[in-house]
TrEMBL record:
Coiled coil: none annotated. Its main location: membrane. It is a multi-pass membrane protein. The keyword Cell division does not apply. This is Major facilitator superfamily (MFS) profile domain-containing protein.
């Protein structure tokens, strides 16, 4: 007979539980049979656990759920996994009982355990990566998409997702900065250095060390309280107590475990993890003590792990049949309180650790769990034999009492906090009993309501005091004083967040308290950083740019409807950038030829801050190597190709032109446009209020253009000369130009002759045509130096750098031969509104020959920035294209 046949025979002949073995094989007394029966008795639970693991495998790991779940539901979602585990145990007990009398039943149990595993594999394949991993891998767009799906039940899900991504980016940036710091010492074996650094961070950083202590304490307590000894050896215990069907009796324990795990699922985020443990552990202790006392009052035979006959079982207890029932009730209450608290809360461990040590910390905590499980499984039977059941359960009760004091002393409440907020909570010192204040009165009665009202009033007073503190550092110091202050100030519903946000950024628009808190903290932390781009743009710089961009976008969107809030946002941007090298060196990499090209986000933010860099009070200093003079003058470039491509805007080229003007308008050393510009009263503005969101071209513009004669034949000469504005013969050109224009829907304002040189790139139906006049700043419209202007603007359909509403603008300033294009005479009888338009003369139009009908004509092509107040670009001589140069205009 081979081994498989022998096992089948033994499995079919030998019952799986000691009491059943005694009932069916009363005549079998040899030790070999007893030994085999004991083996099969243990096998039932082994196979049951196998099937349970398969059932519980329907859901994924605690780490995955913790990182993906929103903070308000993280506790319940992690508890779902425990719910499936306990549900799997119930199913396993039922399956084990059904197959206990079947030939080769253990084979069926093992085989059925593979089905849930196959189903789990099919589900896991379709799951997305966690947002924190995606951000760490540089896939912010995918992380934003995943989070938008997570929060899809919220109307503002995209805004929430963006805030969560920001907080993750901040944490990742901090981690990368730390890894860059230790990079020189880990080049030889990068992965080993990475592990060593994470271990060092875990044990040496105070917040991480506290998280590890809490996690290992909870995981050790979960096992050392003795619950799994009940799950592993329940049939042995109930057999000793003379229950006729120990398997079905054990099933009652498993069902209780499942039902109270279900209760924990419903209440864990409402009551809080800490409160659940403080309420449930004492019930476990009392149940174990009563169970121990009951065992002590019973006359039990010497404990043996070997099965006993029915006669032995009948003599195993005293004549008081109530005592086994009392023990069963105590163990049921013990199981219920365990399932409600310790069975679930320790698996919330992932929320304790920051991203850089989360995997290592969770691994050590889980290892503590299994090591404690091994100790309990190894020692339970010897303790029952050597110490007696009463003392064994007393030891477990003592562990619960010690564990309760540990929870009370060091485990803070973390319900409703984001993973980033938990990190900050643990990093600020011993967590003690800090917990978010609960503003929901749960006990009725006038005295309770009065008490709650008084507490609310005290909290409001504390919040107002915190609000009056001059800086966020002072608020942190105040919170660190005691737990009571922290409970009053830290929660999202605290008024301090809305008040401080309003002071810095104006009235918040449609944001909840929790969103305001997150946004305020992100802006405060990110904008306080001294960021430079000397070595290019990394994650930290990208996050800083994104926060700056979002504030600027918010200001642009609010200007038409809420000028006060928009001005507060712009003032905050000014304060942030006043001493920043970001404006003083407006080029990523600082001209290093080895540096990466500036990102679209960098260029977009720089361009949209042009109004700020051209403010003399900001004292911005741009160097000649902060722009490419060849790109500024389109040196040796084909000017027949458009400067502005509406499908893909080259922001870097526009930024070079902007930086040229920054250098020559604000640097006295250049002796070019400085005196003219700094004497102006009307300089670029951040934005202007518009009547509606539809694009409306401003009517008054002021600006400069630069030329160089003769056009240089080498880039080195162009680099040296740069402009003719410092020549005495060109002083008139240093004075700013003034444009006065109005919208005119006539498409002939950009005739075919002009379009052949500067073509319309998009649909003509989307173009806005205009015409007007150009004069020297300060002169009258009737001055001899007045010239006519005609042009168009067209939308750039896509956002660039996250900013929408870029527009391409083309116009011509010309001096026409009035014999070829004569002016039309005005009607002397014109009256009323028509007289107001006499500043713009009519002329014979359209032209058909540039060289014949114009004395000179200059074509201007550029981009209007999203604010609608500044245009930057290139001009060319439409009769002699070798004459060219940069221009800049701003709305006045």
């Amino acid at each position: 007979m081979n081994r498989g046949d022998a096992n089948d025979e033994l499995a079919s002949d030998a019952p799986l539980l000691p009491t059943e073995q005694a009932a069916t094989r009363q005549d079998a007394a040899d030790s070999q049979t007893l030994s085999l029966d004991l083996t099969d008795s243990s096998s039932l639970f082994i196979w049951a656990l196998t099937f349970s693991a398969g059932i519980s495998g329907l859901l994924f790991g605690y780490e995955y759920i913790s990182e993906l779940a929103p903070s308000h539901a993280r506790g319940r979602l992690v508890t779902i996994l425990c719910l499936f585990i306990t549900g799997g145990q119930v199913v396993a007990y039922i399956v084990g009982w059904l197959f206990s009398t079947t030939d080769s039943g253990w084979r069926w149990i093992v085989g059925l355990g593979t089905l849930p595993a196959v189903l789990q594999f099919a589900i896991v394949v379709a799951l997305p990566e966690t947002p924190r991993w995606l951000v760490q891998a540089g896939l912010e767009a995918e992380a934003l998409h995943v989070l938008s799906r997570v929060y899809q039940d919220r109307s503002d899900n995209h805004q929430i997702a963006k805030q969560v991504v920001r907080s993750i980016q901040l944490e990742v940036a901090e981690e990368e900065e730390e890894m860059d710091r230790i990079k020189p010492s880990t080049d030889e074996i990068p992965w080993l250095g990475n592990v060593a650094q994470r271990a060092q961070d875990l044990f040496r950083v105070g917040g991480n060390r506290r998280a590890l202590i809490i996690a290992t304490m909870l995981q050790g307590l979960q096992q050392l309280c003795g619950f799994n000894s009940l799950m592993y050896f329940s049939a042995t215990i109930f057999s000793m107590l003379s229950f006729t069907s120990p398997t079905l009796t054990s099933l009652s324990v498993a069902i209780t475990n499942f039902l109270f795990t279900l209760l924990a699922f419903a209440l864990i985020d409402r009551l809080g993890r800490r409160r659940i443990l403080l309420y449930s552990i004492p019930v476990m202790s009392v149940s174990l003590i009563v169970c121990a006392l009951t065992f002590a009052s019973m006359e039990l035979p010497a404990f043996s792990s070997e099965p006993r006959s029915d006669a032995q079982a009948d003599n195993g207890v005293t004549n008081n049949s109530f005592l086994p029932i009392a023990i069963l009730l105590c163990l049921t209450v013990y199981t219920a309180s365990y399932a409600f608290g310790l069975g679930n809360v320790p698996w919330q461990q992932s929320e304790l650790f920051p991203l850089n040590v989360r995997s290592l910390g969770s691994a050590l905590a889980t290892a503590t769990n299994w090591a404690s499980n091994f100790i309990v499984g190894l020692t339970f039977l010897p303790m029952m034999d050597w110490l007696s059941p009463g003392w064994t359960f007393s030891v477990y009760a003592g562990v619960c009492v010690v564990g309760w004091f540990g929870v009370w002393a060091i485990y803070p409440e973390m319900s409703g906090l984001s993973l980033e907020e938990v990190k900050g909570l643990l990093a600020n010192g011993p967590p003690s009993r800090i917990k978010p204040a609960d503003n929901r009165p749960t006990i009725s009665g006038s005295s309770k309501r009065k008490s709650f009202t008084a507490a609310s009033n005290r909290a409001q007073i504390i919040q107002y005091i915190a609000y009056l503190l001059p800086s966020d550092v002072d608020v942190v110091n105040l919170v660190s004083c005691c737990a009571h202050l922290a409970r009053a100030i830290l929660p999202a519903h605290s008024s301090i967040w809305r008040q401080r946000f309003k002071d810095l950024y104006g009235t918040p628009q449609g944001r909840s308290s929790s969103e305001l808190k997150v946004e305020y903290q992100i802006r405060s932390i990110v904008l306080s950083q001294k960021i430079n781009f000397q070595y290019g743009q990394k994650a930290e710089q990208t996050l800083w740019l994104e926060v700056l961009r979002d504030i600027l976008l918010e200001a642009l969107e609010l200007m038409p409807t809420d000028e006060y809030t928009a001005s507060k946002l712009l003032e905050r941007i000014r304060e942030t950038l006043h001493d920043s090298v970001f404006l003083n060196r407006p080029l990523s990499g600082y001209g290093d030829p080895k540096a990466d090209a500036p990102s679209e986000l960098f260029c977009a933010v720089q361009l949209c801050l042009t109004y700020l860099v051209l403010d003399p009070s900001m004292a911005v200093n741009c160097r000649r190597n902060d722009y490419d003079i060849g790109a500024v003058y389109s040196f040796q470039a084909d000017v027949s190709k458009p400067l502005v491509n509406i499908e893909k805007l080259d922001l870097e080229k526009i930024l070079h032109i902007r930086n040229f003007w920054l250098r020559h308008l604000l640097n006295l050393d250049e002796a070019t446009f400085y005196s003219s510009y700094t004497s102006l009263c009307q300089r670029p503005k951040a934005t202007r209020p518009l009547a509606d969101s539809k694009f409306c071209l401003a009517t008054q513009w002021l600006g400069y253009y630069s030329c160089i004669h003769p056009y240089p034949d080498s880039l080195s000469r162009l680099e040296h000369r740069q402009t003719c504005a410092d020549l005495e013969t060109h002083w008139p050109q240093v004075d700013p130009m003034s444009l006065r224009i109005k919208l005119d829907p006539d498409p002939s304002n950009w005739p075919t002759l002009f379009d052949s040189i500067m073509p319309i790139l998009g649909s003509r139906t989307h173009c806005s045509y205009f015409r007007g006049i150009e004069t020297q700043h300060g002169s009258d419209d009737d001055d001899d130096s007045t010239y006519l202007v005609r042009g168009f603007t067209e939308p750039i359909p896509t956002s660039h750098g996250g900013f929408p509403n870029w527009r391409r603008i083309c116009f011509a300033i010309y001096d026409a031969d009035r014999e070829q294009l004569p002016l039309m005479p005005n009607d002397d009888e014109t009256s009323g509104k028509e007289k107001e338009e006499l500043w713009l003369p009519e002329e014979a139009w359209p032209p058909y020959d540039l060289e014949v009908e114009f004395n000179w004509i200059h074509g201007y092509e550029g981009v209007i920035l999203p604010s609608g107040t500044i245009m930057i670009g290139r001009w060319i001589d439409m009769l002699e294209p070798t004459a060219r140069g940069p221009f800049i205009f701003w709305n006045v």
